[in-house]
Each structure stands twice: as structure tokens, then as C-alpha cells.
Design a protein that fits this description.
Nucleoside Triphosphate Pyrophosphohydrolase; single chain; binds zinc ion; 7-stranded mixed sheet; alpha+beta; 19% helix
């Protein structure tokens, strides 16, 4: 049922996580007009989990959803980007034991126009080289080095 993944849970590492069935996000990468890789980053609203940090659009998985479905639904809600406008190239599973965050890695043909919803303070196509200078969501920060390598391969 829609929204049945919303809620807090704990993983085997003792972290508190949002998403009782796990969570998923979408990393969209594209090249700008200078051929520089950029990542679509979300400045999370202060009231969200780990608010006022930068991360990827994403959120809790519903019980009936695959990680891909959840990532694309959340991205559509939070950015206006729909699955058909990007090419899925890879995924990264961050398995915490009893809880996981799946990041779907996608390539966009150009820097797509985006629109905000209430969960974001801002959405920005950030130069890949500058991503780790932002105040990052801790979960995203842990996986960013691996995600960066995947994006490059794709
Ligand atoms: Zn954890």
C-alpha cells in the first residue's frame, strides 16, 4: 500500500533509519555544456531526516516496490524527473544488515530541468568534483566514493 514504508527502524549496526522496508534513491549524472560531469543533488529541507544536508532524491520503499520502483517514484515526486528521461546504468546496495539503501545510478542526456517539492530547499546540478565540499547526508557521504566510481564507468 502506498506509504506503508514510512517510519523509523533500526539496522544491525544500531543506526536509526527512515523506511521500514529499506530506502532507495536516484543518482542522476550528466555532462554539462563544457563536458564536465555533474550530479543532481538535493538540499534536504530542515524538517526531514538528517535535514539541512545535501543528498540524493529518494526515500522509503513501500512493501510492494522494488528498489528501482521506489527510487524512480521518489525522484519523480521530488524533482519532476521521470524514469523515461534517464538511462539506468547501475545500482549500489548499501547493506546495513536487516536494512538497506539502494542507490540507482542513471545517466541523463543533458542537465534536465527540475522542479522542487516541499522536501527540498534546493535542487542543483553540482559539479562532481565539488560534491564532497557540500555538507552531506551521512548515508550519502559513506557511499559517495563508490557511487562516483560507478557513475564514471556508466
Ligand atoms: Zn545502518
Amino acid at each position: 500500500m502506498h506509504g506503508d514504508g514510512n517510519g523509523w527502524t533500526w539496522c544491525a549496526h544500531g543506526h536509526r533509519h527512515w523506511g521500514v522496508h529499506g530506502a532507495a534513491g536516484l543518482m542522476v549524472r550528466s555532462l554539462d555544456a563544457h563536458g564536465e560531469p555533474r550530479i543532481l543533488m538535493q538540499h534536504r529541507a530542515s524538517w526531514t531526516a538528517h535535514g539541512d544536508t545535501w543528498g540524493l532524491p529518494g526515500g522509503a520503499r513501500d512493501s510492494h516496490e522494488s528498489p528501482h520502483e521506489a527510487a524512480l517514484r521518489e525522484a519523480a515526486e521530488e524533482t519532476g524527473i521521470v524514469g523515461g528521461s534517464v538511462q539506468l546504468v547501475d545500482e549500489l546496495v548499501d547493506d546495513h544488515g536487516g536494512w538497506s539503501y539502494v542507490t540507482v545510478v542513471a545517466q541523463a542526456p543533458h542537465l534536465l530541468a527540475v522542479r522542487l517539492n516541499a522536501e527540498s530547499e534546493a535542487l542543483r546540478w553540482v559539479r562532481e568534483a565539488l560534491v564532497d565540499q557540500l555538507r552531506l547526508h551521512p548515508g550519502f557521504a559513506r557511499t559517495w566514493p563508490r557511487l562516483r566510481a560507478l557513475g564514471r564507468a556508466g
